């Protein structure tokens, strides 16, 4: 019986199997090898996973969830319709969908898998990942570290020994790992990263540049305009290497403008972000005490490493081009599949992590007065990936006139907004009354290997310290809880597989409808109505034809191919 390898990613997941001819990436029910890690419930209460759910993310945000990998190993629950789910349960639903796709593709039952996890995942998070597998009906005897999987996909384990640098830049984060391979053991040494640097930041910088040129702020755009502008910039970014002179029609506020998205323009705004990405690379090299010439291979993972500017920067740093001939979006799944194949032959690679790191960013909420939203912004204090034990202090000032108290809310997470992170607790300290910004407090977070966070808040003017201990190692499920989680998940039903393509198309149409206006909107509504009527007639040949036609129109409306 085949053991499959799964990359359970924050944005996308993928799975593969090792055969005689090497790795086959398994297509899902829609024919894609990438399944967005998004889960939703539709109006009929049925489960949608992957692309269909992703299309519904904007219009049905209360019934759709994404990026839950960031909550793995915590007790935090998120609402999906009227029910609450843990990250483990949501991951189980993605895994269940991948398992079914693998079974349909291989024509046999699949009961065992190797799943990849970030190297910085702690015991809790690893345990939660295995449990998610179990809830999906998969035995997960082994996990594999994501950088190790990438190294294996490139065949680096076939060498006798070596030092490898793995650079993984996705949509929102950048992770750097150094691996040392010897005697058949892959050791993950230094790891560093930037939790707030990824492909989305390049798009944000493009939007900022357009708006600055027009002398406008984001608050002058409608949500629909901002969404459209984001999508246009995303597409332009992906095409910029091949199409260095793109002419875009943009709608900003009341104006319609033509914008020249040139390679020069992009390079200028990407440079500060690229310089930022150099820092964690240099830090990891320093921590591992390795000069660039001792790195035998540099491997690129994650969609953003497709940017040619990023590749040339890495090339310049190491004096040679990085390994990037494999698809950076599926390279981890490929490695996991190889490890799964080796495992079924009892030849799996030993893969260990040598550093103990803090798996999440821990911080507090602060007010950002420049923001029109006046919301609570997350101020990281201990960054994810920091080697523990660690103690870090940050100073904040009073934000209001005559403030008598400073409240320190403690959050864990990777989002810029505190409301999207996990609240862990709070503590308050009295401060002497005075003008805004006069009094300061030092907030010290100390984190140790047992998952204990100590928060010390010192009032600078008086030297008085208040201390609070926060424990956040959530318990694993006992047998009874596991059984009830299993029951809850088994009650959720997927749509029949053959129905999925139609659902994905309708969800896409609804997303396009929402982001359009006027005539374009009416056309989409008419097309969707016609398609509904074809579906009602239940004639498979007619449905297939109508679906292909509709797909073509939507491709056109979506503008560009999202490659
Ligand atoms: P991931 O989380 O690995 O799926 O990464 C997705 C990120 O990769 C997104 O921010 C994309 O914009 C980015 N990406 C994908 N393809 C390209 C490309 N050809 N050029 C630049 N960025 C890309």
Automatic annotation (TrEMBL):
InterPro entries: ATPase_NBD (IPR043129), Heat_shock_70_CS (IPR018181), HSP70_peptide-bd_sf (IPR029047), Hsp_70_fam (IPR013126). Keywords: ATP-binding, Nucleotide-binding. The keyword Nucleotide-binding applies. The keyword Nucleotide-binding applies. One of its GO terms (molecular function) is ATP binding. It holds the Pfam family HSP70. PANTHER family: HEAT SHOCK PROTEIN 70KDA. Belongs to the heat shock protein 70 family. This is Molecular chaperone HscC. The lineage of its organism: Bacteria, Pseudomonadati, Pseudomonadota, Gammaproteobacteria, Cellvibrionales.
């Amino acid at each position: 019986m085949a053991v499959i390898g799964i990359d359970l990613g924050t944005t996308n997941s993928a799975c593969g199997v090792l055969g005689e001819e090497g790795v086959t990436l398994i297509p899902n029910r829609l024919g894609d090898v990438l399944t967005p890690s998004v889960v939703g419930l539709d109006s009929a209460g049925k489960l949608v996973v992957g692309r269909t759910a992703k299309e519904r993310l904007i219009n049905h945000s209360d019934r759709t969830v994404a990026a839950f990998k960031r909550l793995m190993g915590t007790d935090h629950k998120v609402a999906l319709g009227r029910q609450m789910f843990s990250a483990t349960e949501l991951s189980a639903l993605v895994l269940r969908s991948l398992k079914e796709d693998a079974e349909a593709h291989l024509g046999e039952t699949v009961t065992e898998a190797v799943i990849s996890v970030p190297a910085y995942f702690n015991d809790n998070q690893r345990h939660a990942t295995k449990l998610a597998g179990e809830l999906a009906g998969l035995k997960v005897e082994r996990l594999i570290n994501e950088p190790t999987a990438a190294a294996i996909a490139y065949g680096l384990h076939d060498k006798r020994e070596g030092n490898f640098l793995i650079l993984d830049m996705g949509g929102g984060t950048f992770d750097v790992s150094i691996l040392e391979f010897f005697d058949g053991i892959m050791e993950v040494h230094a790891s560093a990263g930037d939790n707030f640097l990824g492909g989305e930041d390049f798009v944000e910088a493009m939007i900022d540049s357009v708006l600055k040129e027009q002398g406008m702020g984001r608050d002058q755009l409608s949500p629909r305009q901002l969404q459209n502008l984001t999508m246009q910039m995303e597409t332009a970014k992906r095409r910029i290497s091949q199409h260095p002179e793109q002419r875009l029609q943009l709608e900003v506020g009341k104006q319609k403008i033509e914008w020249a998205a040139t390679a020069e323009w992009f390079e200028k705004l990407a440079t500060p972000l690229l310089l930022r990405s150099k820092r964690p690379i240099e830090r990891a090299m320093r921590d591992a005490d390795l000069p660039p010439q001792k790195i035998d291979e540099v491997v690129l993972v994650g969609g953003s490493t497709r940017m040619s500017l990023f590749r040339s920067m890495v090339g310049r740093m190491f004096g040679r081009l990085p390994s990037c001939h494999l698809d950076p979006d599926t390279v981890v799944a490929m490695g996991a599949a190889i490890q799964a194949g080796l495992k079924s032959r009892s030849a799996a690679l030993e893969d260990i992590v040598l550093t103990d790191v803090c798996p999440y960013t821990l911080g507090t909420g602060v007010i950002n007065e420049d923001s029109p939203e006046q919301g609570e912004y997350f101020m990281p204090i201990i960054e994810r990936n920091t080697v523990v034990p660690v103690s870090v202090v940050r100073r904040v000032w009073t934000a209001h006139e005559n403030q008598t108290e400073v409240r320190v809310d403690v959050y864990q997470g990777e989002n810029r907004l505190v409301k999207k992170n996990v609240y862990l607790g709070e503590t308050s300290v009295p401060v002497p009354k005075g003008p805004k910004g006069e009094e300061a407090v030092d907030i010290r977070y100390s984190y140790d290997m047992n998952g204990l966070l100590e928060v010390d808040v010192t009032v600078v003017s008086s030297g008085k310290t208040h201390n609070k201990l926060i424990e956040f190692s959530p318990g694993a499920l006992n047998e009874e809880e596991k059984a009830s989680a299993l029951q809850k998940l088994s009650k959720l039903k997927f749509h029949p597989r053959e129905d999925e393509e139609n659902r994905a198309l309708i969800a896409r149409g609804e997303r396009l409808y929402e982001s359009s206006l006027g005539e374009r909107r009416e056309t989409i509504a008419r097309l969707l109505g016609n398609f509904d009527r074809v579906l009602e007639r239940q004639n498979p040949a007619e449905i297939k034809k109508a679906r292909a036609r509709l797909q073509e129109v939507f491709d056109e409306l979506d503008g560009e191919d999202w490659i």
